[in-house]
Write a structure and sequence with these properties.
rod-shaped, single chain, mainly alpha, 108 residues
């Protein structure tokens, strides 16, 4: 019965190796599937990052435009104020000229 036991042991060893091989293949497939899933998720995250970068750039440009608008608005307000001052000065000069001409008998 000795040869029968050896054959049985060899068959059991072969079956164990086949089982290990199948488990390894299954793990490899799961790992490949996991790797594909991770790659896909990574690509999705990269697209989200690119989208967020574009949004940030647009937001920065909008903020810069808003600051430029505020600066231009302030400058326009200052120019209007200067114009009002010049208008008052011109009116004062006109009044002085009118008074001087009136004193000399001339008309405006």
């Amino acid at each position: 019965m000795q040869p029968f036991e050896k054959l049985k042991d060899r068959l059991n060893d072969a079956l164990e190796k086949i089982e290990i091989s199948l488990e390894t293949e299954l793990e490899n497939r799961e790992n490949d599937s996991s790797l594909d899933s991770l790659i896909s998720e990574n690509e999705g995250l990269k697209r989200q990052i690119d989208s967020l970068k574009a949004e940030l750039e647009i937001s920065s440009k909008d903020k810069e435009a808003q600051l430029n608008f505020e600066g231009l608005s302030a400058e326009l307000s200052n120019l209007r104020e200067e114009r009002e001052q010049e208008k008052k000065e011109l009116q004062s000069l006109y009044d002085q000229l009118s008074a001087a001409l009136a004193a000399s008998g001339e008309t405006v």
